Amino acid sequence: MDVSTLRRIEADPNYQKLISERKWFGWTLAIVTLVIYYGFIAIVAFAPEVISTKVGGDITIGIILGVAIIPVSILLTGIYVVRANAEYDDLTNAIVSASKRRGK
Q1: What are phi and psi of 101, to 5 degrees?
Q2: pLDDT digits (tens, 9 = 90+) for 52-98
Q3: What element of type H or E holds 60?
Q4: For residue 60, is it left (φ>0), alpha (ψ between -120 and 50) or beta?
Q5: Are strands 54-56 and 59-60 parallel, antiparallel or unpaired?
Q6: What 3-state DSSP class applies to 53?
Q7: CA separation for the pair 13, 92 (Å, rounded)
Q8: What value, to the nearest 5°, has the Cα angle with vertex 22 and ends 19 and 25?
Q9: Is the Cα torsion angle 59, 60, 63, 67 positive or negative in sign?
């Protein structure tokens, strides 16, 4: 790919939108994930009495929260994939189509 094609793609409003939205959404999900993981660790470190509270038998709040982190992480990944397939793929296809039209 030559420099003029790269500049044309970088100037495309769809490319600008794709980069901007993907970056914002990616960072948002990353921050949510970090808050969940570090929040769990913070509860373990600073409120062990809360995390060790039994809810039934040997099951504690800590076990429930620890196990809940896994499906929440999977859900966040799914949210990103759905959005990527719905919005980001359309923008990418528009960028590729525009680039092919202008290149001829």
Answers
A1: -65, -45
A2: 999 999 999 999 999 999 999 999 999 999 998 888 888 888 888 88
A3: strand 59-60
A4: beta
A5: antiparallel
A6: coil
A7: 11
A8: 145
A9: positive
